[in-house]
Automatic annotation (TrEMBL):
GO molecular function: transmembrane transporter activity
Membrane topology (UniProt): Multi-pass membrane protein
GO cellular component terms given for this protein: plasma membrane
Gene that specifies this protein: teaB
Keyword Cell inner membrane tagged: yes
Record family assignment: Belongs to the TRAP transporter small permease family.
Function: Part of the tripartite ATP-independent periplasmic (TRAP) transport system.
Identification of the protein by name: TRAP transporter small permease protein
A GO biological process held by the record: C4-dicarboxylate transport
Domain spans labelled Tripartite ATP-independent periplasmic transporters DctQ component: 22-153
Keyword Metal-binding set for record: no
Amino acid sequence: MPSRPPKFRLDAWLATIALVAICLISLGNVIVRYATDASFAFTEEFSVFLLVVLTFAGAAVAARHNQHIRIELIEHYLPPWARKVVFVLQWLGGVTVLGIMTWYGSTFAMQEYQWESLSPGLGLPNWIYVIWLPLLSAAIIIRLTQNLVDRLRGREAPEVIHES
C-alpha cells in the first residue's frame, strides 16, 4: 500500500462540498420546519443547484478513474491493438457529447447573463447556476482525456470488483 498522501483533486472536493451542503441545508430545513411549521425559502433552489454540481463533479472523478458504467466484456476479449481502438472510440463518443454540452451550455449561460434573467425562487441571476454546466462538462472532457492517455499507455487502474 503506497504511503504517499492522496492528490488534491478539485473535482472531488467540489463534489464533497456539494454533498455536505445538500445534507446540511436539508437537515436545517427539516429541523426548522418541525420546530416552527415554516421552512427556508432557498432550500429547494440551492439543493437542485448543488445536486447538479455534485453530479457533474462526481462524473469528472469517475471519468478520471475509469469508473463509468459500460460493458467491458468486449474489451477483455480483444487483442491489445483493437482494445486501443475501442478506448479511442469510447473517448470520442464522450468528448462529442460533452463538447456539445459545453458549447450549448456556455451559449445558454451567456444568454442568461446578457438577458439578466433571475431565478424564480430567490431572484438571483440565473447565470450563476447555469455557468457550472459548461465548466464541469469541460472538466469531464479533461478527465476523460487523462484516462484515455493512461489506458493507451497501459496504466489502467486495478480491476474494480462490483458486489451485488
